[in-house]
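Tokens for chain A. Residues wanted.
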């Protein structure tokens, strides 16, 4: 029994601490590849990163299963994560720039933008790690043992595979030996840019979601030492966090428009999903931090800075951005039959109806807890952009279906604009429903995985149609249950 325990500790130590030398060897291989462009060293570097990734995926489980009494095992795992990611992501950022100069000197604008996007991802990853360490320390000081949220677990799972994939892409050397290892590594290095964008956008959203999750769970701990009993000061500082998430909501909407202008509707849809996620998190965080409740000596204000900022972000991401994406996608199709449709009028109609719905939501004196009156603007945005992916595919793959999908998107825009303003129909607050029913969130993630297939548009549209028809069932749910954000 003692031998088995000793062996399990040794294996756990190898899995936890063995990642650092493997990543360091991978870094040396990458430096050598940039210097002498050796396909063999490139293959070895990818192999080192792949083994390190495998260790990262199993070390936590192995420590919990076989070495529960191993001192500092989980702390060491977090430290190794921070060190390893501090090596990998700056390394691949330098690698994609090197690839543009020496491997693809005649690079296109999308390739240049991808290199810049990888730089942004690197900054976000390092920011997230340092922020998580900072906020966990305050939770520990208050006697609260930090627990991983769903986003943090997901981020831990996907970070190492994404780092390995970007390494294989950044340091790819063409015309290498015909070995099985090189063929496998070169396959990863030659993945289409569109696939890489999808993976990176999802990874970026997960990182921001992890930051928001830490704010939501432990955001008030570190303010106890700063503000003491000054509640107004405390609330002003705390309001920075949900307001930051609201700004990220607007940024995601602007990025969605930018990608649509490049003809990448699928990536635009992913950014709108990110905007919807931040729209859920900012309100949830504000309620978690108690910012929605007035102070004892203050009367509640219906309109304040937070609500105005939230409305502006929602107007950008869920009213203006979908209308703009619709206009860009259909007008650039160059199909004479599609261009005869009043595209501009319908796009303006959707944006105006969406903004009108936001104004009504802000000024409504008799809201229904847990429900929206009329279809919420995030749901409408995801509903109208989903068929635009099918339209975009038909432009390249099936020209005979262009007119059909153009008319389909045209009608969907009108239906969604109207449904946003049919106030007697009650729509369930989807974000709170996901918080109460984790399996719904997992199902939504499975829908998101279809982004790697040609059927993402169909699956997403079907999912949103179910939400469009959901009031036929959800109207029976009592308001007190619909308003809950956690399980009973």
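Reply:
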């Amino acid at each position: 029994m003692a031998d088995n325990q000793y062996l399990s500790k040794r294996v756990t130590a190898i899995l936890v601490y063995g990642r650092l030398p493997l990543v360091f060897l991978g870094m040396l291989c990458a430096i050598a590849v940039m210097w002498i462009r050796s396909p063999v060293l490139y293959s070895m570097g990818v192999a080192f990163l792949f083994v390190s990734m495998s260790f990262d995926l199993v070390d936590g489980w192995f420590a919990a299963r076989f070495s529960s009494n191993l001192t500092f095992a989980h702390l060491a795992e977090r430290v190794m994560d921070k060190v390893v990611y501090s090596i990998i992501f700056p390394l691949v950022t330098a690698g994609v720039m090197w690839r543009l100069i020496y491997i693809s000197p005649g690079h296109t604008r999308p390739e240049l933008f991808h290199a810049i996007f990888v730089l942004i991802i690197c900054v976000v990853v390092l920011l997230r790690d340092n922020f998580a360490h900072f906020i966990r320390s305050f939770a520990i000081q208050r006697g609260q043992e930090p627990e991983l949220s769903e986003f943090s677990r997901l981020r831990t799972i996907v970070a190492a595979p994404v780092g390995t994939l970007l390494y294989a892409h950044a340091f790819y050397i063409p015309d290498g030996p015909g070995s099985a290892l090189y063929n496998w590594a070169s396959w990863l290095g030659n993945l289409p840019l569109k696939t890489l964008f999808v993976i990176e956008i999802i990874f970026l959203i997960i990182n921001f979601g992890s930051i928001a999750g830490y704010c939501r769970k432990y955001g008030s701990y570190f303010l106890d030492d700063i503000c003491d009993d000054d509640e107004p000061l405390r609330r002003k500082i705390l309001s920075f966090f949900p307001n930051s998430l609201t700004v990220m909501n607007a940024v995601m909407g602007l990025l969605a428009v930018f990608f649509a202008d490049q003809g990448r509707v699928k990536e635009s849809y992913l950014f709108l999903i990110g905007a919807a996620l931040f729209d859920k998190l900012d309100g949830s965080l504000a309620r978690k931090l108690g910012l929605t409740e007035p102070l004892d000596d203050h009367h509640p204000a219906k309109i304040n800075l937070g609500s105005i900022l939230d409305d502006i972000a929602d107007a950008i991401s869920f009213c203006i951005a979908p209308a703009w994406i619709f206009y860009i996608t259909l007008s650039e199709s160059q199909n004479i039959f599609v261009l005869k449709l009043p595209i501009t009028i319908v796009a303006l109609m959707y944006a105006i109806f969406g903004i009108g719905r936001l104004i009504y939501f802000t000024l409504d004196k008799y809201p229904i807890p847990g429900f929206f009156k009329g279809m919420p603007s995030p749901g409408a945005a995801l509903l109208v952009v989903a068929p635009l992916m099918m339209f975009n595919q038909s432009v390249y793959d099936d020209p005979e279906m262009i007119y059909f999908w153009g008319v389909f998107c045209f009608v969907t825009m009108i239906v969604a604009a109207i449904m946003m303003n049919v106030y007697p129909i009650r729509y369930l607050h989807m974000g709170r429903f996901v918080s109460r029913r984790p399996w719904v969130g997992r199902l939504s993630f499975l829908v998101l995985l279809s982004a790697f297939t040609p059927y993402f548009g169909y699956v997403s549209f079907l999912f949103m149609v179910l939400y469009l028809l959901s009031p036929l069932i959800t109207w029976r749910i009592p308001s007190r249950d619909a308003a809950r954000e956690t399980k009973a």
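Residues 109-141 form the longest helix (33 residues). The chain has a mean pLDDT of 81.
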